[in-house]
Description:
The protein is mainly α. It has helices at residues 2-20, 26-49, 55-79, 95-122, 137-153, 155-163, 174-182, 187-201, 206-226, 234-248, 256-278, 284-289, 297-302, 311-325, 334-337, 353-365, 376-384, 386-407, 412-430, 433-461. The chain contains 20 helices and no strands. It is globular, with a radius of gyration of 23 Å.
Amino acid sequence: MLLRNFFIFIYLSITVFLFATLETSLSLWMSFMGNALILTFITYYHIFIERRYSPFLSTYIVFNFLFFLVAPLAQISEFNMMEAPTFTHHFPFSELTFIKTNGLIAIFNIVFFLFYVAGKDYIKLKKQIPTRKSYSLSNIFFFIVLSILVLIINYDFFLDELSRPSWLTSTYSVSYLLIVKKVLFLMPLAGVILCIDYYKNSKINTQKWILATAMLFFLIALVLLFKNPLTEKRNALGPIYLLLLFLFVPKLLNSNVKSTLLLFVVMIIGFPLSQFLTHIDYGFDEILSNPSLLFAKNQLSEGYMSLNYDAFINIGVVMEHVEFDGLSYGYQLLSALLFFVPRSLWVAKPDASGLIVGNHVIDHYDFYFANLSNPYIAEGYMNFGIIGVIFMAIVLALSIVYFLTWLNSSNLFKKSIAFYFAMHLLFLLRGDFTNGFAYFIGTFIGLYLLPKVILAFVNLFFYKKVWVQKS
């Protein structure tokens, strides 16, 4: 209870400060306050009422708080100091556009929450009966061998990823990048999951314990080699590192308040603070003699004007795009659902929504960068208008309810995929949907389907027994 009260105190303190210092019209202030009240109610339900562990809702709350409250309110403070208020990508600030955006967010949040609660209560989670798996040290060793083979075969690609700056486009095809980085490079992580399951469900003598521990450390080293800040973007690293934390130190993330607080600290305090400190205009001596410079309002809000926090304002861009060019009626969604079809075979394949947003600000506001984010909410509006917003909210709620059953499974692979999806929601909700969906499907294949097929093959043809896993 103490931790819950502490979190709510921090949450409400930040919220009160944001609204107390917000200088804008009453109508815009009220539109943000309405969404803040809705989100606060969802947060209270999640922390104090919800009994089931649901890191999905933790991620959903933190995303909304950061990208749909903190960031736009900070951006308004910057707009107030401009003669012609525009965002970084030159899209102009409009109170009416912000009010309409808050309206769409409110509709989405209400529909999502209603279907989440109803769906969660409708699907009764079965009591899981632990079952001993047929994993062995040989299975783990097989994954080590496969991981090494993946590294050897893709060694040139790996070196290229290490040396290539993040801003430079890879010379490899998109399909190759997806298969190698999002599927094959997850092989060591699958081996880690096997090791942990082996510890939990096998009787281990001293010799086997030493051998399994050595294998585990080697696999962790391979995970950190394949998935490191030099070869992966932070939106891909975050879910993987948090999954490792979930697997090795589950007590840190075994309740709704713990998972929400951790994400809250990392995303709302840690990430903006690190960006703020690396972009501050004052030297160390100046800050030391006058610490108040750290809290100058323009310094705190300036970082939120970067493209890292364009989610809220890009909903406005999408609304304008729809006003100019009309709805896509589901055609644009095909770029996500059929992401695996190469453009060489489908010349008329629709662009990802982030590219559409980028092209809109390039064509109408003389911007220079095309690949922007597009929030999950805006994806629905781009395709079907308000009906699309409602539809996407329902799909998200039911998807989370489904993965809740996986999170409560005795199958550690299912449990791991479910937790990964919960953390991946930060990227999926920020968008665009095509990349978020494709990356998750790649992880789903690399961390669940492919290991399942490999283990079945190994046990059937090498150990003469079929891998059977009850869930």
